[in-house]
Every structure is written in C-alpha cells, then in structure tokens.
Amino acid sequence: MGILKGMGVTLRNFAGSYFEKERLITVQYPEERSPLPENYRNFPFLIFDGTDPQAGLRCVACQICEKECPPQCIYIIKSKDKKPDYVGKPQFYPATFDIDISVCMSCQICVEVCPFEAIKMDKDFELSKRERFDNLLFRKEQLSKSNGYYHKIHPIEAAAVDKNLSDAAAAAEAKKKAAAEAAAKAAAAKAAAVSAPTTVASPESAAGSTSAPGQTPPETTKP
Ligand code: SF4
Ligand code: SF4
Fold this sequence. Notes:
Layout: H1 2-16, E1 44-48, H2 64-68, E2 74-78, E3 83-84, E4 90-91, E5 94-100, H3 109-113, E6 119-121, E7 137-138, H4 140-143, E8 144-146, H5 147-153, H6 155-195, H7 203-206
Parallel strand pairs: 1-8
Antiparallel strand pairs: 1-6, 2-5, 3-4, 5-7
Helix pairs in contact: 5-6
The chain binds iron/sulfur cluster (SF4) (2 copies).
One iron/sulfur cluster binds at residues 59-65, 76, 113-114, 116, 118-119.
C-alpha cells in the first residue's frame, strides 16, 4: 500500500506539472536558476561601504577570524598605518587578506566572531577552476564586495546589520557629544573659580566687631 501511495504522489505531480508551475521541481540550469533561500551560504567575502573597495573596507585586521577559523584558511597581514572606520575612528586595515577556498568548509565561524560586521557569507557557488592552488586562493581585491551586493543576496540579514551599525554609530556620536559637553562644563567651572574675587577678612571682622541691628558701625580710626 505504501508503494502504491508513493506512486500516486509521483503520478499526481507528474500530471500536475503540465498545468501548475510549482509542481515542476526541475529547472533548465544554467539557463534557468531557482532562487536561493536567504540563509544559503557558500564562502566568505569582505564588505566595503561606499564606492571604493579598499577605502571603505570594514575589516580592521583584528585577526580574530584568522585565529578562530578551524581549518586555518584565512591569512591576514595588518597594515602599518591607519584609516578612519565607519564611525570615523582611525583603525588598521588588512594589507593582505586571503582565504583559501579549497580549504574553507563554509562553517561561518569567521562571520560569527567578527566584531565589525566586516565578513559575511556569499552565495556564489559557480567557482570551479581547472587549477587547484593559486586560483582557489582568493585575495582581498577578489573578496571585497559592496554593501549593496550584501543587501541583494541577504536582504533581511543586511537590513538588520545596517540597523546595528547605525545604532552603534549614533551611540558613539552621543557619547562623544556628552564627553565634549562635560569637558566644556568642567572648563567653564574652572575658569569661573579662577576669575572670582578673593575676599580678605579684616582683623576687626575676624574679631567679631559686627554692629548690632540698627546701630551704625564704629568708625575706624585712621592713623
Ligand atoms: S567559513 Fe569557516 S572555514 Fe571558511 S574561512 Fe570562515 S571560519 Fe574558516
Ligand atoms: S574580518 Fe572581522 S574578525 Fe576578521 S580581521 Fe577583519 S575585522 Fe577582524
């Protein structure tokens, strides 16, 4: 009975595929492609903001992903100088950033550990090459892709990341503003303390020679 039921499902889908597109589960690849789900992943890539891939690269070469990558297929050399990051803070950048995709196992650990939202998983799977070694070692230039590309392949995730980054930038700006205001207040208080006249008490007042209410104060005898 089980076999007959299974054959029935197959027959229904086979006949139905002539009338309903969703019953047709094969596509004429590569001319036709099924859309990949949001959370499909293949190999990592680096994100840049703006239009310049190298100036806008979010990666600050902290090397956390390099240390955490289980098969050790990330290779980073930190820059000697610094450039401003997305909140304007001077940061190092990767002078070299390579990923050997012949070794990468698509585990996504590098993405999970990156504190700067700089590395994400790509969906590009048509990467086969005739040569095994150098052609599967992806360099920084090849790995760098725009935030717009990230939005195209992972729209929901990218929107959430953008929100996190803008919240972090706003919080950093508010903190900077509060620190500037506190410093200005402290400077004003210090300036007021320096410019205030200092009152020197006379010997009489120090001895308690104050007049009673209604009485004229005693005249001081000039020498
Ligand atoms: S996906 Fe995994 S194996 Fe590939 S580079 Fe990232 S941490 Fe390494
Ligand atoms: S991708 Fe992220 S974790 Fe890796 S070096 Fe760059 S900033 Fe650090």
